[in-house]
């Protein structure tokens, strides 16, 4: 029973599923969809503004001296993963549709998660300061690298994404973050005291983007294009992708001589992808495309990585307890 409880989807994942179902039954369209898009952009800008206000500059620079660890994480996130994505997207259309293949490429170009990477590193007994630095800098680099990588790999895959969208990402994501950083001396303490507000804006903005994206996809016939077989195939592809990433980062960390704490940080920071950064970016990068199909692999990967890493973190912690005894 306890094993099943560990694998139970978290509340946010259940909200995501509920949002997709709601968009399926009552999708927004026309002027309502346009108004919803504007409100979503405001919510996303507020989210990154609050992140900028909360994140201390010391946290970003504190772990920079551990350059071997950070380079390993960044290589996994922005080099190894994109290669895996390009190889996976090359699967036959009977196994992976072109739209879902584009979603896999996008997923593999995203930065690492911040909150969950740090949380799992802490639970497992890893190098938390290094995790804070790697995950935070990965998130910042992703604002620039993800659009460039997506544009490059989508061109190689036969896609047609414009790099002009980088400007939109900078204006909607990076500028609010920088403004938050600049105002941190005055509002930083307030932002730290109101962590729940960040959580509400964090999850709320993602749900808003998901509802808008899937509404548009449903209006354009998403569920006529997506069969149960293709969904099952997508789940299997995500499981294999995560398994390969976890195995490779573990092997690389040990091969390069990192200690146990650093290995844990590399595994959790180098194998995970950010839903928080990914959904808003998809909404900008793939404007005019079926964004619902693009973010579907990311949503599935998000839940799979949370369940798998929760079990893995407890396993690391149990091993440490047994070694101490």
Explained architecture:
By secondary structure, this protein is an all-alpha fold. The protein has a single domain, classed as Na+/H+ antiporter like fold (Up-down Bundle). 82% of the residues lie in helices and 0% in strands. It contains 16 helices and no strands. α7 packs parallel to α16 and α8 runs antiparallel to α9. It is globular, with a radius of gyration of 19 Å. The two termini are 26 Å apart. The mean pLDDT is 80.
**Count of separate structural domains:** 1
Order of helices and strands: HHHHHHHHHHHHHHHH
The total count of helices amounts to 16
Strand fraction: under 5%
Structural class: mainly alpha
Integer-rounded radius of gyration: 19 Å
Number of strands: 0
CATH topology: Na+/H+ antiporter like fold
Task: Based on the model shown, name its key terms.
single chain; 325 residues; mainly alpha; Na+/H+ antiporter like fold; 82% helix
Chain-wise SSE layout:
Blueprint lengths: L1 H6 L3 H15 L4 H25 L2 H5 L5 H23 L8 H11 L6 H10 L3 H29 L8 H18 L1 H10 L1 H25 L2 H4 L2 H28 L4 H11 L4 H11 L5 H34 L1
What would a concise description of this structure say?
Keywords: Membrane, Transmembrane, Transmembrane helix. This protein is mostly helical and 325 residues long.
């Amino acid at each position: 029973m306890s094993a099943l409880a560990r694998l139970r989807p978290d509340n946010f994942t259940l909200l995501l599923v509920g949002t997709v179902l709601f968009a399926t039954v009552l999708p927004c369209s026309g002027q309502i969809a346009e108004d919803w898009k504007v409100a979503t952009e405001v919510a996303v800008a507020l989210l990154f503004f609050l992140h900028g206000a909360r994140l201390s500059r010391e946290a970003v620079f504190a772990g920079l001296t551990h350059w071997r660890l950070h380079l390993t994480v960044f290589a996994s996130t922005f080099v190894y993963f994109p290669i895996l994505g390009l190889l996976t997207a090359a699967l036959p259309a009977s196994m992976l549709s072109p739209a879902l293949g584009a979603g896999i490429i996008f997923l593999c170009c995203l930065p690492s998660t911040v909150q969950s990477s740090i949380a799992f590193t802490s639970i497992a007994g890893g190098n938390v300061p290094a995790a804070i630095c790697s995950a935070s800098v990965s998130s910042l680099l992703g604002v620039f690298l993800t659009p460039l990588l997506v544009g490059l790999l989508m061109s190689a895959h036969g896609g047609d994404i414009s790099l002009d969208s980088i400007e939109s990402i900078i204006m909607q994501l990076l500028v609010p973050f920088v403004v938050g950083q600049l105002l941190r001396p005055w509002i930083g303490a307030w932002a730290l005291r109101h962590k729940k507000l960040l959580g509400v804006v964090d999850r709320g903005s993602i749900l808003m983007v998901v509802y808008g994206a899937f509404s548009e996809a449903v209006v354009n016939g998403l569920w006529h294009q997506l069969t149960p077989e293709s969904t099952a195939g997508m789940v299997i592809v995500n499981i294999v992708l995560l398994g390969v990433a976890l195995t490779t980062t573990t092997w690389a960390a040990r091969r390069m001589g990192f200690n146990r704490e650093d290995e844990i940080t590399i595994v959790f920071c180098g194998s995970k992808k950010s839903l928080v950064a990914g959904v808003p970016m998809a909404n900008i990068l793939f404007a005019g495309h079926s964004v619902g199909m693009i973010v579907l692999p990311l949503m599935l990967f998000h839940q799979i990585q949370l369940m798998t890493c929760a079990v893995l973190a407890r396993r690391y912690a149990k091993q440490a307890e047994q070694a101490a005894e």
